Amino acid sequence: MSAPQTVPLSVRAPGRRAGLGTWLLPAYVTIAFTLLLIPIAYTFVFSFNDANRSNISWNGFTFDNWLNVCVQADVCTAFGNSLVVGGVSTLFATTLGTAIAIGLVRYRFRGRTAVSLLLFMPMATPEVVMGAGLAAQFLTAGVNKGLGTVILAHTMFCLSFVVVTVRARVLSLDPALEEAGRDLYASPREVFWRITFPLLLPGIVAAALLSFSLSFDDFIITYFTSGNAQTFPVYIYVAAQRGIPPQANVIASAVFLIAIAATLIFQVLSARRAKRLDLR
Predict the structure, then answer these.
(1) Short-list 152, 162, 92, 153, CA closest to 120
(2) Containing H/E element for 138?
(3) What confidence tens digit (pLDDT) does each residue in 9-33 have?
(4) Alpha carbon distance 51, 60 (integer Å)
(5) Could you give the domains of the chain?
(6) Please, which residues bridge with residue 49 across strands?
(7) Which of 196, 191, 193, 187 is CA-nearest to residue 169?
(8) What is the pLDDT of residues 211-257, one digit of tens each?
(9) How deeply is 83 buried, as exposed, middle or buried, from its count of CB atoms within 10 A (0-12, 13-18, 19+)?
(10) Angle (CA) 108 167 85, round 5°
């Protein structure tokens, strides 16, 4: 009878490490997602709270908050201001950022490196520093703070993110496609709108969505530059001292649900498109 074979420790060790990783990583992911989703779940649950003066403690279940969102007029006004600021600043930042990104990639000019460096500074500068600096400039220039100053500040803040996003898309384009259009006697305007712009469109849309989300969610820069005007984040900050009204929870929950629905729809459409391409 042959002696039983033993497995060296060096062979067993990898198996033990693999066994530890099989449950450690899922546990870590579960805990992380739970901590992230607890505030969202709290917001959603308390949007159905039958609140009286405050929305801190649970008083009962009701649908009235969802059916009568604008009972608290300040909530809808602040939310509308956030939509206006986010939409206008996104339009300005996306338009200017796309032009700057194309210029930085396609053209050589004096100071090009310095411009690229300066564009990254708003991304690296703390928002409190930028907000305080803009507030001081508006005060020195005698500009009354309001939605106009908030839009200007958000445009400056979001511009860097748009340039970085679109610039990466411009760098990925094949110049031969545009050269082919010029060889077919297309004018520079036709080449841009029929070739360059459609190819840049995914990057422009991604930059615009990023810009809108940053603007809609911003509090620090808005707080310094808004004056008496209130956006939704500023309203939440002020209202949190006495208990956020349930109507604010309704709007926050609705925005979250719309974002999730839009993401799911985009994923489904992308999967269908990829499937059609595979069938071809």
Answers:
(1) 162
(2) helix 127-141
(3) 444 455 455 566 678 888 888 899 8
(4) 8
(5) 73-244 (1.10.3720.10)
(6) 61
(7) 196
(8) 999 999 899 999 999 888 889 999 888 887 767 788 888 888 888 88
(9) middle
(10) 120
